[in-house]
């Protein structure tokens, strides 16, 4: 039930805001809330549909559309239509390079470890901003449909998402003006929607099979004392319902003896047949035959034929299930529940094969494309303390993290994490020969450490002198059941180690916590923009440092004229770093990167030919 609270000093009646659950998907996203009857329910804003395709189209005038409307531009205007942004979230170019042909829009190919960026027209976007735009659309639809403001959310991510992908999702939420109560694993949300894991006395091992539009994953979860532990995940990030559509499309091309190249060239026709193939696939989930035309091309297929076409793909997913069980060191007989997630599990063959493999009927009573959002809404409601029947486990009231370059807060244990909790991350040095590393520990939700509460500070001393980026410093946060936080720092190459202990809640009142949370919500948008500006600056400074060093050391591979021009461009970059905004800085970095790329390539070629020469016998 939405709570009504009365402000005693003013006498005004305030309707408390509604908390939502969001499934931010690769193909589709959706938002759910707890309805006045206390049940989770997906939001359908004025007939626009429950599923919002995770697609953004940018018009030349700078305006944009999200969802079904944007989907129409996938073929008409591919460079300005961004899809599958979830695949880029929290990733570097290095991570996504193997799949770069998959994306039709421009991904900036700075060969760095920093997070990937996308260029649309003249503007640069991070995947965080783009995901933020999808979340904003969802938030607005919910506000419109529910006629109230929506400020707090639980957002789901795949179980295999790493720290950086989770943090990126959190930041996307912040940018959309949402206070992200918790990032929850998709399989956890799905099982909660089925009521599995709600009772803290229950102990269970379950499998969650998730086949979406373009990705497949299976998770083995162990539920104990209300805690969901991921025992293993497996899957294929390029296997999903899109492959089923593709199989039908290929079949029609063959059946009608169409010229593949000709069809592909006529993008309008191609897209029309592709969409018809998806329509056929969906129809075959509930009927035995599909019969239609695109222009005068017959598009017919039987369920039997369709199942023959996709049999291998489905088998592949079953092999992943087998691998996951093996990694978790358990057998199918130990799996007590199987939960189906993702639109593609509506295909009867998928249901059949999964149930056969696990030797039990898989749960599919809840719409598989809605189940994650519904579970997220339930989790949000629990976290908000609205479910008196469910015990809320001890959680950390504020995020815990350390200071990184530019005075930024790097969260290691996020707010609302269960206690006890353990998390860590690896860092490195930014300067050649750096032998000390200052570690400052903070508590709070703001992006700049200066706005947060400092808990401790210490030096990790005696790191052997190495080039920048070589030392590997693991920082671990271990928060025990008594609320004592142990911070461990260890340089892995040398074994140099240092640790301290603090009690984060010491001297902290409830009012202070509340105030810190309020401040962070109020400043969320500016905080994230500031973070992105500082990150761009840091990246630019690193680039200046690297290029200057490169020019110094490798003068024989670079002509004096090139050196001169490079220095001029570096000066321009330095100036932009001082005065420019984020986009100007990114543009300038991209320019220097393009200009110096041939130098590095030349050096690589030289290195390769030298090493080959080394191998020849004279
Ligand atoms: P994601 O989690 O990747 O964002 P979804 O769970 O929304 O994606 O799944 C989208 C996929 O589900 C699409 O390939 C879509 O064609 C497919 N799908 C939706 N409904 C059906 C259906 N009735 N039968 C088979 N496939 C379906
Ligand atoms: Mg999904």
SSE class: alpha+beta
> Whole-Å distance between the termini?
84 Å
Low-pLDDT ranges: 1-15, 611-618
Which percent range describes the beta-strand content?
25-35%
Bulk shape: globular
What is the highest CATH level, the class of the largest domain? Answer: Alpha Beta
Number of helices: 16
CATH homologous superfamily (4th level) name of the largest domain? ATPase, nucleotide binding domain
Tally of extended strands? 28
Counted up, domains total 4
Identify every distinct bound molecule in the structure, by name, code or SMILES. Answer: adenosine-5'-diphosphate, magnesium ion
What is the average of the pLDDT values?
90
> Roughly how much helix do the residues carry, as a percent range?
25-40%
Assembly type:
single chain
Query: From the coordinates shown, what is the CATH architecture of the largest domain?
Result: 2-Layer Sandwich
The CATH topology of the largest domain turns out to be Nucleotidyltransferase, domain 5
Supply Rg: 26 Å
Give your account of this protein's structure.
With 618 residues, this protein is an alpha+beta fold. The protein folds into four domains: 19-194 and 367-383, ATPase, nucleotide binding domain (Nucleotidyltransferase, domain 5); 197-365, Nucleotidyltransferase, domain 5 (2-Layer Sandwich), CATH 3.30.420.40; 400-522, Substrate Binding Domain Of DNAk, Chain A, domain 1, CATH 2.60.34.10; 526-612, Substrate Binding Domain Of Dnak, Chain:A, Domain 2 (Up-down Bundle), CATH 1.20.1270.10. The chain contains 16 helices and 28 strands. Strands 3, 4, 5, 6, 13 and 14 form a six-stranded mixed β-sheet that branches. Strands 17-16-15-20 form a four-stranded mixed β-sheet, with helices on both faces. Strands 22-21-24-25 form a four-stranded antiparallel β-sheet, with no helix packed on it. Strand 4 and strand 5 (40-42) form a beta hairpin. Helix 7 packs antiparallel against helix 10 and helix 14 runs parallel beside helix 16 (582-615). The longest helix is centred in the C-terminal third of the chain and has 34 residues, at 582-615. The model is unreliable at 1-15 and 611-618 (pLDDT under 50).
